[in-house]
């Protein structure tokens, strides 16, 4: 099947008519499937709108054309839907997971996450996936009968397990969680609404996860070129990218670097989508899942890069790590951003009355225990946009880094 053609609806995809339901019962929509309803709720959430002023790599005021968490999430959704369409999966569930996957990120990207994790080291640390789950199940206050968005089991499962199982069947954390354990926010919610942490997630969730990698690689190349951190010809040290650039130059001799870069991004995305679709089709044919539950019980992820493409994708990430993410210009801004988040956290700990009134406990900050105060401050800071964090720092401190 050629890339872009829709496959017939697959039996191993998730079926909205047979969802495992929501934590709180609601009558079904007369006009939308359960998964379309989930997607609409994510799009209309406060947390989703805030993504437009949250850092991807470059802080929002560094340029109008750099990716934000919002534009990144939209690009992930576009790639994920293309893959879901080809594999015969539910596009609405796939889109929901793509749009929701970064809702738990704090301001200033991974710098903000590192700072919050350090601030909370004695209180379980900070994990953006656990925070996304909190946003979706508790921190959005839009409905009269429940906190959160009351999304389907399949959506919450996909948010939590898009990178694979978190535990084995006995409940023991898998190796990547061996040191600190599965984040408490996930385990506590799982006791109330069992997401089967031991199993793989649906193919829709696996597609959304790999679309995130594809979007990161392609669009961070685009942003790095725009920022002048490297030139397009520097990328020829990555063999796959060198082959794509050579093909572009043969097809369009004399093309300017701006258009060469844009064509590279398009071709790279197309290459990755084609490779992932082919590998997924191979693994599905080998495993022969007859249902979404068969996918969950499989011994490996069924959506993945083939070995050669996985090597190329790792080489792209290695290039971006040294030439972009660790570039001194980027690192300076991120160090200052970490300091801003750490300053805010300590200030609110020392002076909890500096929090906005609607973020104070009903009985006042004095009556609140230390553990609850730390978690309240975590949720407040994690929900901040870059510009709100800067404004709060300027309000509370005499000097604020410029982040440029």
From TrEMBL:
Composition skew (Basic and acidic residues), residue ranges: 15-32
Alphabetized PROSITE patterns for the sequence: HD (PS51831)
GO molecular function, one term: dGTPase activity
GO annotation terms (biological process): dGTP catabolic process
A Pfam entry, by short name: HD_assoc
HD domain ranges (all copies): 69-217
Residue ranges, annotated region (Disordered): 1-32
InterPro entries with a match to the protein in the record: dGTPase (IPR006261), dGTPase-like (IPR050135), dNTPase_2 (IPR023023), HD/PDEase_dom (IPR003607), HD_domain (IPR006674), PHydrolase_assoc_dom (IPR026875)
Protein keywords: Hydrolase
Annotated family: Belongs to the dGTPase family. Type 2 subfamily.
Protein name, entry field: Deoxyguanosinetriphosphate triphosphohydrolase-like protein
């Amino acid at each position: 099947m050629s890339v872009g053609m829709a496959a017939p609806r697959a039996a191993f995809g998730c079926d909205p008519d047979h969802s495992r339901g929501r934590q709180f019962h609601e009558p079904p929509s007369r006009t939308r499937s359960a998964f379309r309803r989930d997607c609409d709720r994510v799009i209309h959430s406060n947390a989703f709108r805030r993504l437009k002023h949250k850092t991807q790599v470059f802080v929002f005021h560094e340029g109008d054309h750099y990716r934000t968490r919002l534009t990144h999430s939209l690009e992930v959704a576009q790639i994920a839907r293309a893959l879901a369409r080809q594999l015969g999966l539910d596009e609405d569930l796939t889109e929901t997971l793509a749009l929701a996957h970064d809702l738990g990120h704090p301001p200033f990207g991974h710098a903000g996450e590192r700072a919050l994790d350090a601030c909370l080291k004695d209180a379980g640390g900070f994990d953006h996936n656990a925070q996304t789950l909190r946003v979706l199940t508790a921190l959005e206050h839009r409905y009269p009968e429940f906190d959160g968005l009351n999304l389907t089991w399949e959506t919450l499962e996909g948010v939590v397990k898009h990178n694979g199982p978190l535990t084995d069947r006995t409940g023991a954390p898998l190796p990547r969680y061996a040191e600190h354990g599965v984040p408490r926010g996930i385990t506590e919610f799982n006791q109330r609404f069992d997401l089967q942490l031991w199993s793989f997630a649906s193919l829709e969730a696996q597609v959304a996860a790999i679309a995130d990698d594809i979007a990161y690689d392609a669009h961070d190349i685009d942003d790095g070129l725009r920022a002048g951190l490297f030139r397009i010809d520097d990328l020829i040290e990555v063999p796959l990218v060198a082959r794509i650039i050579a093909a572009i130059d043969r097809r369009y001799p004399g093309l300017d670097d701006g258009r060469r870069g844009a064509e590279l991004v398009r071709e790279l995305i197309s290459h990755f989508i084609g490779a992932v679709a082919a590998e997924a089709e191979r693994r599905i044919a080998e495993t022969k899942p007859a249902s979404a539950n068969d996918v969950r019980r499989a011994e490996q992820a069924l959506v993945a890069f083939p070995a050669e493409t996985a090597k190329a994708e790792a080489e792209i990430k290695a290039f971006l790590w040294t030439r972009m993410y660790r570039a001194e210009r980027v690192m300076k801004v991120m160090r200052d951003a970490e300091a801003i988040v750490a300053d805010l956290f300590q200030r609110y700990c020392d002076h909890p009355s500096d929090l906005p009134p609607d973020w104070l406990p009903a009985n006042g900050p004095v009556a609140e225990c230390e553990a609850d105060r730390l978690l309240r401050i975590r949720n407040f800071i994690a929900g901040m946009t870059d510009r709100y964090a800067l404004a709060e720092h300027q309000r509370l401190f005499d000097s604020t880094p410029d982040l440029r």
